Each structure stands twice: as C-alpha cells, then as structure tokens.
Amino acid sequence: MSQYQQDIDAIATLKSTQHGKWDSISPEYAARMKAQNRFKTGLDIARYTAAIMRQDMADYDADTAQYTQSLGCWHGFVGQQKMLSIKKHYGNTNKRYLYLSGWMVAALRSEFGPLPDQSMHEKTSVPALIEELYTFLRQADAQELGKLFKQLDTAKESGQDTADIQSQIDNFESHVVPIIADIDAGFGNEEATYLLAKKMIEAGACCIQIENQVSDAKQCGHQDGKVTVPHEDFLAKINAVRYAFLELGVDDGVIVARTDSLGAGLTQKIPVSQQPGDLASQYNAYLDTTEVNGAEDLKDGDLVIKQNGKLVKPVRLPNGLFKFKSDTGVDRVVLDCITSLQNGADLLWIETEKPHVGQIADMVNQIREVVPDAKLVYNNSPSFNWTLNFRQQIFDQWESQGKDVSGYQRDRLMSSEYDESELATEADQKIQSFQRDAAREAGIFHHLITLPTYHTAALSTDNLAKGYFGEEGMLAYVRGVQRKEIREGLACVKHQAMAGSDLGDTHKEYFSGEAALKASGKDNTMNQFDV
C-alpha cells in the first residue's frame, strides 16, 4: 500500500474517533495535502538531500560518467522553473542540483543594493534564499500533484481506469534537490561560521561550500587581491560547519573546501610552527623571504623567522600582508586540498583562471596520490571567456601538432569572422564535451555555473526591451515570449496558476465546499491558454 493510501486510512480512522465533529473533513483531501507537503521542516529537506548527494558521490566513484550538475539561482522562482524544466524534458531530477552563489546574493539580494562579491551583504540573506528556494520547490510539488489529483477525480467521475494516474501519484518524484550553498569565507571567526552554518542547514542546506580566503578581505575568486588564511584557521571553520551538521542531526552533511591559492599571492598572518614539518611550517615555506645576516639587514618593525636553520625576513607589503613566492600556487593548492580532505572536508573546489582540463587534472592527480578518492566541485564560470579560451586551446594544439594555423590570429580568435571556421567548430565541440571530459580525466564530480541566470535575465530583458520599445511593439512580447511559452509547453504561461491560484481554489473547495469563491471560473482569462 502506498503512503498516500496509508494516510487516507489513518486519517479516516482518526476521523472516526471524533464523534461526528469532523464530518466535513475528507480523509482523501487531507491525505492529498500531506502528499503535497512532504517536507515539514528545512531539516527534513537537509537530511533527505544529504542522502541523495552521498549516493551520487558513491555513484561517481564507481563510474565517472555519473557526474552531477547545477545552475546558480538567485530567486526561488528561478530555481522552481529550472527544476520544472528538468522534469519536463528529462522525466526526473537525477544528478541535478541547485547552486546558491554568494556572488549573486551580493549582487541581487542585498538590502544595500548591488554589491561586489566581498562578503559585504547581510549574512542572513543566505539562509533566507535557501528557505525561499525550497518554498518554491515544495510549491512545485504541490502544483504538479494537484494536477494529478484533478486527473484522478476526472477519471473516477467518467469511470475510466485510474491505475496509471494512481501510480504517478504513488511514485511522484519531488522537485526538492540538493543545494550546494556558498558560505563565502564564513562571515567572521569560526563561531560566526558555526552560527551561520546552523541557519543554512535549518533552512534546508545539505551541502556547504567554504573558501580559504580571509573573511574580512574576501574577494571574488576571479578578481585580484585575494588573501588566504593558514590551514589551522581554515580547518577550524571546517570543524565549525561539521559541528553544526552534527548538532542538527544531519550526520551525512557535505562540506566543500574551496581553495583560492592558485590566484592568491598574499597571506594575512604567519602561523606559529610547533614542530618541524607541521602545517604551519609547510605554509610558511611558501613565503617570499630574504635572508638576514645581521641587524644591519633589518629596519624598525621588520619581522624575522627561522627557516631551515637560517634567519629570514618575509616580504611584507605596506598594508601588512605577506607575499608568497611566485609560481607556488599549484603546490599550495595541492597542500590545501590534501589537508582539507584529511581534516573533515568531503569535496574540493579549486578556483582556476581558465577552464582547462589538463591544468585541473595535473593538480587532482597530485592530490589523489595521497587521497585516492578526491573529488571536485568545479565552477564553469561565466567569468571565463569560454569561446576565446577554447579557440586558443585548439590553436595551440594545432600549432604543436604542426598543423597550419596561418589563417588565424591567436589574439583575435574571439572575432566573429572565425565563427564558422574549422577551428571554431572544433573549439565548440570541446566546450560541449568539457564536463564529460573533466569528470573523466580531472576528478570533477559536480559541475556548476555560478551565475548563469544573472546573465539570462539580462539577455532576455535586453531582447524584449529592444523590440517592445522599437518597431515591433507588442509583437516583441507575443512572438518572443508568450508564443514561445505556448509552443514549448511552459506551465508559466498560466502565470495565475503558477503563482498558486489553482492550488488556492482547490483548498477553498476542501474548506468551504460548494460555497467556495473560486478564481478559476469562466471569466478567468487564463482559460484562453487551454486551446
């Protein structure tokens, strides 16, 4: 017996004990409402999605073709439409997640207005967006199940076989999927990280991504000026997130440790080494230093440390930050990743300056020499010029193979004059296979685009504004938006229903019976889309 049928029976039994006081309550309607609201709390969601993500990680370990994907969403409606689209086109949500980008929270959700990705936005806006996303996904469940219930009623009334519809109800797959949620650098010290992590988990987050930048100097991973923290500081924050998961009973919560060391040439402080070769010693070994032979080599306020039996002076900038040696980024990334995995992190995020499978694989292979099952979450970032990067990669490949590249100028490969060229075609093929290739060759378990819907909103709005305020007028909306919604089967064309009108009508009928004042009568203009 399905859960739906069990609920009908249980509520009917409960109703029978009420001595007639619940005569107006329909056990079947109550069971429908339970089915449409499967998750009662954010913690229910976090536990459910953590199990999904852990199984997906195991699937990937067994077969790298089983990688996962997500798109960044800055509003609950965007996340809802994404999952509705996935279910419409692919039938299920398997291996598809949502990503919550700190960049988009800063740019689009702060009460201060648009802000750069520097942890300047309100930390409360992060768990608020998680809760909003799951509110919209749960509403998608309610709406889609509501349609099935209406089909069931219609079939019953006409005496049709209801087995197929009942099976769809009994085996309904929720739109609720894992969210990988960006906590930036933790928004303060480890206690601040713990408190915010709790709020995020309570809102439904099963996976929290944290980076090794200095919290009060945090920069976007694709901009200059990044400053990293010593390993001890970062591990304390990983511990803080794990304690938050355990306190709230999400024992298999997932932590993604992000390293920005590839592009970060600075550190805020020099950790204290307790014994030779410890983490502090390894971190300090990458500092840019000059040897000190005597007091005459020092100025007032200079700092001196002992390394390998010698006194050295770390290079310090006027702002007090210390420099790392040049060309140590890869080594620091590898050490960061190994250390994080050995101390509680589950997945890695390596922020790179370009999407290059070989570069990522080189680092991952070094990490896997120590941690064989190391896996990455990778940012397929809009900050990369994907067209130019891959055209240049193909150009370099052809040149190394001795192929004639005289018809191309490497620094002008973004030009539209090359769009139909053989080189551009091959580059596009490599872009298309990038996620498959990187999952197979570079240990990438999860591919995400941080802020795609930021760009799609801008692009679609520009196209509509260009036509609507020009010669096309209303045709720009009709041909460019509404007609496409109808032809492509978007439920959103019935925006009243998408906002909850039909669901509300159903509830009114449950509560008030024939006296219900419903919005979906003959004068509802949404009926025009039933043709």
From TrEMBL:
The active site is at C220 (proton acceptor). Substrate binds at S101, G102, W103, G221, H222, R258, N379, N380, S381, P382, S383, T450. It comes from the Bacteria. GO terms for biological process: carboxylic acid metabolic process. InterPro entries: ICL/PEPM, Isocitrate_lyase, Pyrv/PenolPyrv_kinase-like_dom, Pyrv_kinase-like_dom_sf. Its cofactor is Mg(2+). The keyword Lyase applies. Gene3D superfamilies: Phosphoenolpyruvate-binding domains. GO terms for molecular function: isocitrate lyase activity; metal ion binding. It catalyses: D-threo-isocitrate = glyoxylate + succinate. Keywords: Lyase, Magnesium, Metal-binding. The keyword Metal-binding applies. Can also use Mn(2+) ion. Mg(2+) binds at D182. This is Isocitrate lyase. It comes from Salinimonas iocasae.
